[in-house]
Write a structure and sequence with these properties.
It contains 4 helices and 5 strands. The protein is an alpha/beta fold and 140 residues long.
């Protein structure tokens, strides 16, 4: 049975009933939940598929800063993109990246300017797309 290594930037419910569909066909490994960087640096594992779920909200506390300039966004995102890029040196296993963010709750804050979380999401999406074209990963 093929193995799916599931990692994420924060906690996900490994016992959620929706995983049952995959559990019937694959061995699911949730040991890297909350530690996506370690899973990306993991060496090849035979017959394994890596799924990395990144939540843009995990990379910034919006209570501290709701807006960021482009350089601040790059400072947050570039290490993540670099980690995904160098992953190819450690593993040839297929990689699927899921990228998500929770939009700001107060719509008035986002009327005049793109919020930091949305900027982080957009930047990560663009940069990971560039990496995808170079090394061939799937992005959801």
């Amino acid at each position: 049975m093929q193995k799916i290594i599931i990692s994420s930037s924060s906690f996900i419910l490994s016992e959620h009933p929706l995983w049952e569909v995959l559990k019937s066909k694959f061995t699911l490994d949730f040991s890297f939940v909350g530690n996506f960087s370690k899973s990306l640096l993991k060496k090849n594992e035979k017959n394994a598929l890596n799924v990395c779920i990144l939540f843009a909200n995990d990379f910034l506390d919006e209570n501290l800063s709701i807006y960021l300039n482009d350089n601040e966004v790059k400072k947050i995102c570039n290490p993540i993109v670099e980690l995904i890029s160098v992953r190819n040196n450690f593993s040839q296993n297929p990689l699927i990246i899921g990228l998500a963010y929770d939009p700001i709750k107060n719509l008035l804050n986002s009327v005049y300017q793109i919020t930091a979380i949305q900027k982080i999401f957009n930047y990560l999406q663009r940069q990971i797309n560039k990496v995808q074209k170079k090394i061939g990963i799937s992005i959801l």
